[in-house]
Design goal:
This protein is an all-alpha fold and about 300 residues long. It has helices at about 5-40, 45-60, 60-70, 75-100, 105-110, 115-135, 150-175, 185-220, 225-235, 235-250, 250-275, 280-285, 290-300; strands at about 140-145, 145. It has a two-stranded antiparallel sheet. Helix 1 (about 5-40) crosses helix 10 (about 235-250), helix 6 (about 115-135) runs parallel beside helix 11 and helix 7 runs antiparallel to helix 11.
């Protein structure tokens, strides 16, 4: 009986993991459809909509997992590893672009605006790496328990969003080669359905790391390695679902904008986590190895 109970618990956890992943996949598809409709209605350009509307929602699981790591779990390294690991995993989605989009090169269909968002992402990750290097040498200033580098990250993220917004206004005035089927729904209906799809993705995305942690504990896996990898993977499932849906409907620009915008928001999550980490500057409490993950992210970008 003692063997049957753990076995049934394991199967139940894996079933929960699969069903929750399915909710994210379906919710991500509709999230993409409604976000594309909103982009068409408000005329802000798909780069801004993908980098802000889509990326913020799909990155909320990383935010929740990171805050939980520095508060409940007291694991600053898990927070940093989850965020930077998710950045690298998001960029791996580019390989899915090539595998699924067979008409011609995805780069020939993508807007040049992604060079801007990619460059901003590289700069922001570079700021994070520099902050990690300085903190490793016990250099840097703080205000209460929050590092000055956190404020720099917030300021640059705000600058990046403002820059993408301005570019999005110009992009919306330029005819795009990428024209998925337009939605017949009103803007109010699109926003309502977008919020419902967002809620489904956020709730499922929040549940996945918790289920993943239970699987790690029940299976007896090494939490330092497998747990971090599993959490980074599960929190990136919303980005994967939205990206694959975007490619399937031919919305290449939304796919690229979602990936690059998610990475921008992920770095901002480090700053948000620092606000919740009350023992001192967060970047001072993490290991220098995260600089390597950051460098890999820059090279992949």
């Amino acid at each position: 009986m003692s063997d049957i109970l753990p076995l049934s618990s394991i199967w139940l956890l894996w079933l929960s993991f699969t069903l929750t992943s399915a909710v994210i996949a379906v919710g991500g598809y509709f999230l993409l459809i409604y976000a594309d409709g909103i982009a068409d209605r408000i005329q802000l350009g798909r780069t801004w909509v993908g980098a802000v509307l889509l990326a913020t929602v799909t990155s909320l699981p990383e935010l929740i997992a990171a805050i939980g790591a520095v508060t409940v779990a007291n694991g600053p390294d898990m927070a940093a590893g989850n965020v930077l690991g998710s950045c690298a995993f998001n960029l791996c989605l580019v390989f899915f672009f090539f595998a699924l989009y067979r008409e011609r090169s995805v780069y020939s269909r993508a807007s040049h605006s992604h060079v801007l968002s990619g460059s901003l992402s590289i700069i922001l990750v570079g700021v994070l790496i520099l902050s990690l290097a300085l903190r490793a040498q016990k250099l840097g200033f703080s205000m209460a328990h929050v590092g000055i580098d956190t404020l720099v990250i917030f300021v640059f993220y705000g600058f990046a969003m403002r820059t993408l917004h301005r570019f999005g206004l110009q992009e919306a005035k330029t005819p795009s080669e990428e024209e998925p089927a337009k939605s017949e729904l009103s803007l109010e209906s699109l926003i309502t359905r977008y919020m419902v799809a967002s809620l489904a993705v956020v709730v499922a995305g929040w549940s996945l790391p918790l289920i993943g942690r239970e699987i790690v504990n029940l299976m007896g896996w090494n939490e330092a390695f497998v747990g971090t990898v599993l959490i980074a993977f599960t929190t990136s499932l919303p980005e994967m679902a939205v990206t694959l849906a975007a490619i399937r409907v031919g919305a290449v620009d939304l796919a690229f904008a979602n990936v690059l915008g998610s990475n921008l928001f992920n770095v901002a999550i480090i700053g948000i986590s620092d606000l919740f980490y009350l023992k001192g500057p967060l970047l001072e409490a993490v290991q220098p190895i995260h600089q390597v993950t950051g460098l890999i992210t820059i090279m992949m970008t």
